[in-house]
């Protein structure tokens, strides 16, 4: 049973749900939070994430066997008794999640949920992962759709701030994942996956990470510059940006695996902090 739970990549599902919740809380008026809506939104998003994750496990089972990090996954070790049944479960999760989002909220939420699953399961996994180093850049749009779904659950016509936050998510993903890919470069090379460090090496990847993070920090300040969020967010986003860029600069000086993992975890702290200051800015009675 644990193997089937692993197929759903629950940690990714929780992160997608938290991203959608942030989009919801960034859009809903103070004092109008509906906890049952938050629960349904989280459940629907986790269903969509689980669906695309199961498909990712199935499609990548051949290259998963070639990487130490993934060689014990259920499909890789052939511990799944009926792969076809699991794929039907994945499809059912996506259909049920979209149906739930449509019934409780509106079709826009369901569309964003579907697009997030599509970009991860099809655009990233099938079209790009094995072909181009831009795989995680374009495939990373999957996370951006989560914040749009959360905002649409409140008001599908209120799109400007959610779009700005989606842009932040778009730029966050490469800085986050390229740092991990530096740690796993040899494994990706053995599996024939052209992640950026495999293609250009760790030194140039560290530079790409810094350039991307500069775009990330700039995009994170746009909601403040454009008056969509206030000073709690602006000061918090600026401080978090300085923290992330300092970590990236350390990676420029020492582009090794240890510093890369420091950047990987720093990017997670950055995003969590950014979510927090968004919520504080909207809902603290200041």
Automatic annotation (TrEMBL):
Keywords: Cell membrane, Heme biosynthesis, Membrane, Transferase, Transmembrane, Transmembrane helix
Single GO term (MF): protoheme IX farnesyltransferase activity
Localization terms from the record: Cell membrane; Membrane
Pathway: Porphyrin-containing compound metabolism; heme O biosynthesis; heme O from protoheme: step 1/1
Transmembrane segments: 12-29, 35-59, 80-103, 109-127, 134-153, 159-180, 208-226, 232-252, 264-284
Mode of membrane association: Multi-pass membrane protein
PROSITE patterns linked to this entry: UBIA (PS00943)
Catalysed reactions, semicolon-separated: heme b + (2E,6E)-farnesyl diphosphate + H2O = Fe(II)-heme o + diphosphate
Gene Ontology cellular-component terms listed: plasma membrane
Gene Ontology biological-process entries: heme O biosynthetic process
E.C. numbers: 2.5.1.141
Domain of life: Bacteria
Miscellaneous comment in the UniProt entry for this protein: Carbon 2 of the heme B porphyrin ring is defined according to the Fischer nomenclature.
Family as reported in the entry's similarity comment: Belongs to the UbiA prenyltransferase family. Protoheme IX farnesyltransferase subfamily.
PANTHER family registered for this protein in UniProt: PROTOHEME IX FARNESYLTRANSFERASE, MITOCHONDRIAL
Function per UniProt: Converts heme B (protoheme IX) to heme O by substitution of the vinyl group on carbon 2 of heme B porphyrin ring with a hydroxyethyl farnesyl side group.
HAMAP family recorded: CyoE_CtaB
Protein name: Protoheme IX farnesyltransferase
Organism the protein comes from: Terasakiella brassicae
Taxonomic lineage: Bacteria, Pseudomonadati, Pseudomonadota, Alphaproteobacteria, Rhodospirillales
